[in-house]
Structure formats: structure tokens, C-alpha cells
Known about the structure:
The chain is built from 13 helices and 20 strands. The protein is an alpha+beta fold. The protein has a domain at 2-40 and 320-543: Roll (Dipeptide-binding Protein, domain 3). The strands form five sheets. A six-stranded mixed β-sheet has the order 14-18-13-17-15-16. It has a five-stranded mixed β-sheet with strand order 9-10-11-2-12, with no helix packed on it. Strands 5-6-8-7 form a four-stranded antiparallel β-sheet, with helices on one face. Helix 6 (338-347) runs antiparallel to helix 8 (392-399), helix 11 (474-481) runs parallel beside helix 13 (517-532) and helix 12 packs antiparallel against helix 13. The radius of gyration is 22 Å and the shape is globular. This is ABC transporter substrate-binding protein. Residues 1-22 form the signal peptide.
Amino acid sequence: xxxxxxxxxxxxxxxxxxxxxxxxxxxxxxxxxxxxxxxxxxxxxxxxxxxxxxxxxxxxxxxxxxxxxxxxxxxxxxxxxxxxxxxxxxxxxxxxxxxxxxxxxxxxxxxxxxxxxxxxxxxxxxxxxxxxxxxxxxxxxxxxxxxxxxxxxxxxxxxxxxxxxxxxxxxxxxxxxxxxxxxxxxxxxxxxxxxxxxxxxxxxxxxxxxxxxxxxxxxxxxxxxxxxxxxxxxxxxxxxxxxxxxxxxxxxxxxxxxxxxxxxxxxxxxxxxxxxxxxxxxxxxxxxxxxxxxxxxxxxxxxxxxxxxxxxxxxxxxxxxxxxxxxxxxxxxxxxxxxxxxxxxxxxxxxxxxxxxxxxxxxxxxxxxxxxxxxxxxxxxxxxxxxxxxxxxxxxxxxxxxxxxxxxxxxxxxxxxxxxxxxxxxxxxxxxxxxxxxxxxxxxxxxxxxxxxxxxxxxxxxxxxxxxxxxxxxxxxxxxxxxxxxxxxxxxxxxxxxxxxxxxxxxxxxxxxxxxxxxxxxxxxxxxxxxxxxxxxxxxxxxxxxxxxxxxxxxxxxxxxxxxxxxxxxxxxx
Length: 574
């Protein structure tokens, strides 16, 4: 899932222990296996709080890409979405650990047939929409059907859809008479999924926002983002795009059906246009004791690292190493030669890029967006230096006799200085190869829409926070570099537009291959590694987030997947 960082698989994450490094340590880098070289326990701010009431002010530098669960592949939307929508299952966060898949709207995490091709879920009794009408299996099915309309919802998550035996179904709009036969609703509380091949991690796919119920008569297509009909503890009271959002309690949410969300505050008020520098200053100064932020790395600026140890600040810092990675996606349709892409990777000073992120307090260098804790994980030995040092001579040698673009664009979301400053490092590094890099700022709310369009820059920073199963190689490897649903081109979340006739076909075939998680994880690792060695992406930073909160905030933990304060459990002293 991409983060703006893009939630590009968005609903749950890469599995690894939450590790981190204390400020001031030397930079040993990250082992080639993807394992961290140091570990540090996560920090939770004032846990154990249970008092209801009060308001939390959420300071953000830009609006959400969308609030529509059917068009969301972003971690920030998934985080706030916990407050107003529920899915069949839920990826429940625990500080410092990959999330656990638990029942949400459903009574359990699903019942599978002996052949592994059919999964059946039963809705809890008494679950309702915000208007008091009952949530039915037909509403869940309709929510899933919407996500097949990729011509309308360009960012709809596709992992669940790819697993279904859906034929050529294209959503409910082009042909309203068409039926998604892969999903059956024999009665109001039962929903049955038919898969192409067994998929052991299907309960994790059911935690994706695809399965958020949508009442058909309330579907306003792209305008649904303005007021998605709530199934969670809160609902939209007011929303001014790019300015503010207010969530209030949903009177028809029954806590007896939802042990996963504590729903402590009465309201959440979001400011959607505050600069990150201002957010950082306000949180550090505690000028609003009820404030938090969902911005990447807590909106902290590079110069703020030393302030985290101040006596008035250190007890208000939630922190932890995440399942989130930043990579550089190289547009393989523009930079077509793998040797040229490799040369770019070798020329980069990734140590300097880490400095732009704030140093070891804010992340660690990584060799892969996968992780050694995943089932069946196999390491890929890339030739980029694990400590981040450039290999300029090797890069120049690779380019001898090559024809390659002498001008490239680097696109970055304009809401964080680290992203722009990374571009400056790239610009300086590639100048030594005779390549002029032009920096292109992109408005943060539109960032991943641009990456999915004809305006895709040649080099783009992407954030990846993992796949639907915390410990599955597939649910990260497939979205990042895998093919589309029919195997004919690059996939939806594949921002490098990587497609290789052999490797992509092997990935497509693996979607329909049976075996144990270990066996399949090994095969996915090997195919992903083949792709990675052609450098469609360049691994950069695995994020260590520090998020300062106001002094009245309680239960503040950094979500391993969300990369920000987990809104489902946070509270406020009032």
C-alpha cells in the first residue's frame, strides 16, 4: 500500500520485528538479507487509557487522496478509515509487531472448503449503517463490485479481485445486468467467495477495503468520497476538500459487535492544509495539547531530530520501525536498458539520501522492500552497497558504449522536504554520469494518480507499506513488480511499469500455483529477485517513525503498517 507515501497495497504489511536504531549511532546499513542490524523496542505514549470523551485535532499538510474505501490504496486512508468503515476482517495493529488478522464485520476469519477454492463468511447480527439500516451480504458484495470498475476507481485495491474467479467482470456501471458470480450471497448474512486457485492468506485479503459494505442506493461514484456511509464508530459530520474534516460518533455503531476499536474520543477534527514545518513546530512546542498528525515521520523536519530528546518532548514521542519502505521507481518504459538502470542505482549516494530523511533516527537503509521475516523469504544480492556508498566507477563502466537518456525527470510529493532533498542528491549523483535530472514537484493529494497517468516522471519516490498478509512474500512482491490481473501488462501498483515476458509470466502463473506458504514464498522471492536485479526500483529507506503528540494524548502508538498514530485506539485526557 502506498503512502504519500503510497499505500500501494494498503491494508496490512510486511512482517518483521519492529526494529530501530537510536539517534547518534553509526550507520552500519542493513544486511543484504533485509534484516535490521540493530533493534529497539517501540515507544507508546501513555498506554492503558480507557476514558471516553474529548476531541483530537489531527494536523495534516494535505488532504486524503480519497475517503472512499473502494478507491483507496493508501495507508492514511486506511488509518482514518478504521473510524468510519469496517471490513469482513481487520488487520489489528500491535506496537512493534505486524498486525494480526481478526474478525470485523464477520463472525470469524472465514471458513474454507476442503479444496481451498471457496471461502464463506457470516456477518454478525445487528451490524448497521449510520442511518440505522442493516448491513447485508449484498452491501458487501456491491462494495466489492465497485472495485472492479477500474475506469472509474483508478486506485481501487486489486489483490482480492485478482484472486477471485471473476472472469471478465468489469464492475456494476458499464453493464448493470452483469453479475459477479465469484461472490454469492445466499442470504442476508452469508457471503461466499469462489477463487481461481487456493489462497491460504485469503482472510487477509478480506481485510482490504474492498469488503467495506456500500449501500447501492447511496453510491455516488467519485462523489462518494465526500460522505462515505459509515459502518464504524464515527461518521462524517462535515468535509471541506483540502481544508477540514470532522468526524462525530455514529449512533448506530454497536461496540458489542466491535472489540477492535476503542472509539474513545467524541470527535476527530482534521486540519488538511497546515505545512509540515508548522505541524512540527506546534507539536514540539505542545501549543495544542490535543493534537497529533498522520503525516509521514510525524511531519518532523530533518533539523528536529535533536529536539526529540528534550525533557519537554521525549515522553510525548511515539516511535517504532515500520513495515514501510521508500524506493525509487525507475520508469522502465523510458529507461529501458537494465544496465542503465543499474548504473543509476550504483551511482546513488544512499547514505546522503538517508541524511535527508533525518538519519538513523528516521530510518535505515535496506536492500529490498521485502523482509527476512516473511515465510519462505530468499535474499537477493543486489550490487548496490548495503552501507549506501556510491560505486561511481562501476556505474560509468556500465554506461560505456550505451545510448541512454541524458535528461530525466524526478517527481516527488511536495509536502515533505526530504522528498525534494532526495531529488537534489539524485541530481548531483547522476550529473557525474552525464545525466541532467529535472525536479518536478507534484501536489501530494494527486501524487499517485500522477504516477498512474501519462505524466509519470522518469524517476519517482514511492512508499510501500506492505501487502495484505503480514508474513506473505506474495502480497508485497506481486503488487510492487507483478503483472495486471490478466497477465498482459504491468500491474496496478507497479509504478515502475516493469513487465518482462518471462518473469512476469512466472509471477502470473504463481498466482495460480498451490503449495505451502514456505514453498510459495520461496518461489515468489526468486521471481521478485530476478526482477529486482534489473533495477526497476532502487531500495532506499525502511522507515523508523517518530511522531510527537500533544500532552493530553493517550494510547499513542505508531501503526506498523500505517506509519502514523493508530486512530483506532488513541484517546485524549479532557
